[in-house]
Amino acid sequence: MAVGEWKKFLIPYEQAVEELKIKFKSIRREYRRKNENSPIEFVTGRVKELSSILEKSNKFNIPLERIEYELEDIAGIRVMCQFVDDIYRVVDLIRNRKDMQIMYEKDYITDVKVSGYRSYHIIVKYPVNMADGVKEILAEFQIRTLAMNFWATVEHSLNYKYKHKIPEEIKEKLKSAADAAFKLDQDMLEIKDEIMDAQKLFEVKSSLVSDITNNIFTLLSLGRTNEADNYRSQLNKVISEGEDIELSKLLEATEKSIGMHK
Ligand code: 0O2
Ligand code: 0O2
């Protein structure tokens, strides 16, 4: 295939990656707006480089005309989660979607790879609406925790450095690092409720502070400079030494002041 033809071949994959990134980032936004804990921490995606497509198809003896059916990760989406159980919530999200069809799933968390690699993979068939009709493509989801992602990124760059021939002693270190990362994930899962409470508290606090700041600006725009300055210094004091309940009281006070002057 000429370079121009490859470019054309890759268009639906580029479209799919953009769409899927938006769709899964939106799910995170939806959870956050509803003030619920999101199983999705962040999402990345990429279209496989042409050189990697050719290298992989060569390695597996895939003829060019079969690439679109047999290379499943030309379009790749990665979903990162805070906790191991979130991975399975994301898997369920994907299983319940009407805009893609699952071809198969690989649970490399239960079936850890020899390298130490852990992630949940789902291969889907995804229809892309092109100018001249619908083109169905295959895409690969990799769902993993932040710790699994850290490990995989490091291991991936070492594989690149050593051209897939990582020395035995480094391989062993990597294997035990992978297990240590998984131990961290399991420990975090045990205190998940505590962590989520802390994150919620932090969110509540930062939204109170932002509401109070907005009110202070409103007072300034109403010409109530002294009151605004007074609230500003109270806010600084409460932030450094106060409790959330005092922030709520301060918010109420600023709302009352605005009400009086509007
Ligand atoms: P790093 O440093 O390599 O981890 P946006 O600003 O949202 O448009 P975004 O989210 O950065 O862009 O995504 P982009 O630039 O399209 O995609 C690149 C990301 O895809 C990189 O993450 C890669 O880690 C990730 N990626 C690389 N290979 C694969 C793969 O085989 N499968 C999947 N699913 N993802 C892959 P970072 O964090 O940008 O950069
Ligand atoms: P890239 O550079 O990420 O695109 P295989 O038969 O094992 O060679 P297969 O059948 O294509 O691979 O599927 P598999 O095993 O599910 O792996 C697909 C992708 O998962 C890989 O894509 C990697 O992104 C990731 N992966 C699998 N095993 C490992 C591992 O041991 N370490 C790391 N860091 N990533 C892994 P590519 O095309 O190999 O690479």
Automatic annotation (TrEMBL):
Source organism, top-level taxon: Bacteria
SMART domains for the chain: RelA_SpoT (SM00954)
GO terms for MF: ATP binding; GTP diphosphokinase activity; kinase activity
Q: In which pathway does it act?
A: Purine metabolism; ppGpp biosynthesis; ppGpp from GTP: step 1/2
E.C. numbers: 2.7.6.5
Keywords per UniProt:
ATP-binding, Kinase, Nucleotide-binding, Transferase
The residue ranges of the RelA/SpoT domain are 45-166
**Which SUPFAM superfamilies does the protein's record reference?**
Nucleotidyltransferase
What is stated as this protein's family in its record? Belongs to the RelA/SpoT family.
Q: How the protein assembles, per its UniProt entry?
A: Homotetramer.
> What name is this protein filed under?
GTP pyrophosphokinase YjbM
Q: Which organism is it from?
A: Clostridium homopropionicum DSM 5847
What gene codes for this chain? Answer: yjbM
